[in-house]
């Protein structure tokens, strides 16, 4: 009887594991399909429903060529670093961290497993190969910064649910004006503003449908006014799409929660240097640079990349009026979400100036979670006993990203508890004597170039600790060098695979690979220069 019971129990456990694996892969593929608008490009009107519990998923190829390459390459590199490469002076524990970094990075880039699952490998490998305990490795996944991101995403979900993002966008466009350039600039500013508080991915997904709808309407208006040409059609449509893509990428770097790279920087500086980067200080430093970059990008798109002969549409303001009429007056729900949104932003911005004197324990994470809790508490007036956010929103949270950030922090713990950091610095002594501004340029350029072909979260996780080590090796303050590197990883314009924002605009089918390379290259060069100048001159004043 006991053996029969054990077999049945084991069968149940295996069934649960199989279902969990199926659900994780289904979530991974559904997310990729959503980000690349696969269903739209294939002419499917609805997104396939998620696989329910107990339902058998459709058959898939076990490993693609890329995944199979990663499956082999990752362990090969892992064991080469661990046992074969002549890394003189590096301890076995340091080799273990180095090998873990390479394995995780390889599987991240080649998507051997879902990103969130790959990010759990440090929990397994670090305690086995280093002095990092299982508790220390696992605690990184519960870091307060992950909950800061969680709170920010809850606000994003509320904005989307009650269409407040549309009202913000159309309001900005109405203020800017109805000229062709004004509409492009309005979309860039609206997207950039939302991206400061909402993830770049979510912002691009929210704004692209609005942008393409407005582009279609404007083309119709051009035909009505007999100023339409295919060339003007192409220019305006591409201008709107690039304004959304570039605006989402640029705006996110203005705040700590706008892009994962900034969160990773904040986590690693606290882990490695013991320095807490506050929301307000980061905003004071980064916002002026973002304003200049946004203005430059808008000027470039409208005057150089896609200059239009049609300057203004007489009926352009009609579209704004019609959209405002469609949205109607602000509902009670919108007002409540806006109140929570503004209150959360105000508390973030003033915490270090005002509230730290009265509530010393108050942190940006506490503020974010308080805002999220309020959204789940405040009732609606729809008569359905609902709240501003309900339980279904939990399923939409970016768990993969949160695990990715946690994996990066776990690796940072391994970095700091072994001699890998010191050893890496010793290898970089060849740069000793190089000017400080040259070091900033090198680290920023490496960050920008790597993030064109790898996820910015993975790039930031790998490069920021190395930048800190380089700074220590040449005897300069590591914080500015780490900041320059993190900023570099946050700006990827040239490749569809660089960021989800790029993938989203590329998937519209309205812009080509060549378009992204050419238009992104100029903006990349400008971004590199601005990061160096701001980190060199403004960063020491603010921090």
Automatic annotation (TrEMBL):
Q: Report whether Nuclease shows up as a keyword of the record.
A: no
Q: Name one Pfam family in it.
A: Na_sulph_symp
Q: Which UniProt keywords apply?
A: Membrane, Symport, Transmembrane, Transmembrane helix, Transport
Q: Which InterPro entries match?
A: SLC13A/DASS (IPR001898)
Q: Any idea where this protein resides?
A: Membrane
The highest taxon in the source lineage is: Bacteria
Keyword Transmembrane helix (UniProt): yes
Q: Which ranges does the record mark as transmembrane?
A: 68-85, 97-125, 169-190, 196-219, 240-259, 279-302, 336-355, 361-378, 399-416, 428-450, 457-476, 482-508, 520-539
**Membrane topology summary:** Multi-pass membrane protein
Q: Would you identify the family this protein belongs to, as annotated?
A: Belongs to the SLC13A/DASS transporter (TC 2.A.47) family. NADC subfamily.
Q: What's the name of the protein? A: Sodium-dependent dicarboxylate transporter SdcS
Q: Which organism is it from?
A: Sporosarcina ureae
The taxonomic lineage of its organism, from the top, reads:
Bacteria, Bacillati, Bacillota, Bacilli, Bacillales
């Amino acid at each position: 009887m006991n053996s029969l019971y054990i077999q049945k129990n084991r069968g149940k456990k295996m069934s649960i594991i199989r279902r969990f694996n199926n659900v994780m892969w289904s979530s991974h593929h559904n997310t990729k399909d959503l980000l690349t608008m696969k269903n739209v490009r294939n002419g499917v009107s609805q997104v396939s429903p998620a696989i329910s519990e107990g339902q058998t998923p459709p058959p898939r190829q076990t490993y693609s060529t890329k995944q199979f390459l990663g499956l082999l390459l990752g362990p090969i590199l892992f064991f080469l670093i661990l046992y074969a490469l002549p890394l003189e002076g590096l301890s076995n524990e340091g080799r273990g961290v180095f090998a873990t970094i390479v394995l995780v990075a390889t599987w991240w880039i080649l998507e051997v497993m879902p990103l969130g699952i790959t990010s759990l490998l440090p929990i397994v490998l670090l305690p086995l190969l280093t002095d990092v305990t299982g508790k220390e490795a696992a605690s990184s996944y519960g870091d307060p910064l992950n909950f800061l991101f969680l709170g920010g995403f809850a606000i994003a979900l509320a904005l989307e649910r009650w269409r407040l993002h549309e009202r913000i966008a159309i309001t900005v466009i109405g203020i800017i004006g109805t000229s062709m350039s004004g509409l492009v600039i309005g979309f860039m500013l609206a997207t950039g503003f939302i991206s400061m508080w909402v993830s770049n991915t979510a912002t691009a997904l929210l704004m692209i449908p609005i942008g393409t709808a407005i582009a279609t309407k404007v083309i119709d208006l051009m035909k009505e006014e007999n100023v339409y040409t295919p060339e003007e059609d192409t220019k305006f449509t591409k201008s709107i799409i690039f304004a959304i893509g570039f605006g989402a990428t640029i705006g996110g770097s203005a705040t700590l929660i706008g892009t994962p790279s900034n969160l990773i920087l904040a986590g690693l500086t606290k882990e490695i240097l013991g320095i807490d980067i506050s929301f307000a200080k980061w905003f004071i430093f980064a916002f002026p640079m973002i304003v200049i970059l946004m203005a430059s990008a808008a000027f470039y798109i409208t005057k150089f990349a896609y200059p239009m002969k049609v300057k203004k549409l007489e009926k352009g303001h009609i579209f704004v009026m019609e959209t405002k009429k469609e949205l109607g007056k602000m509902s009670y729900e919108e007002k409540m979400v806006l109140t929570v949104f503004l209150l959360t932003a105000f508390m973030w911005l003033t915490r270090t100036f005002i509230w730290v004197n009265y509530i010393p324990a108050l942190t940006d994470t506490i503020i974010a979670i308080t805002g999220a809790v309020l959204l789940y508490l405040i009732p609606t007036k729809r008569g359905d006993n609902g709240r501003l956010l309900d339980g279904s929103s939990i399923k939409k949270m970016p768990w993969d990203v949160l695990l990715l950030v946690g994996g990066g922090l776990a690796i940072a713990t391994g970095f700091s508890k072994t001699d890998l950091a010191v050893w890496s610095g010793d290898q970089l002594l060849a740069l000793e004597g190089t000017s400080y501004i040259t070091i900033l340029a090198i680290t920023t350029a490496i960050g920008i170039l790597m993030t064109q072909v790898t996820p910015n979260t993975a790039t930031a996780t790998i490069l920021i600790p190395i930048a800190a080590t380089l700074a220590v090796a040449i005897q300069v303050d590591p914080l500015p060098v780490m900041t320059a590197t993190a900023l570099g990883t946050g700006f990827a314009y040239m490749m569809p695979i660089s960021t989800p924002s790029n993938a989203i605009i590329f998937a519209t089918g309205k812009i080509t690979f060549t378009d992204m390379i050419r238009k992104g290259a100029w903006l990349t060069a400008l971004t590199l220069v601005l990061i160096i100048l701001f980190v060199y001159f403004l960063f020491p004043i603010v921090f």
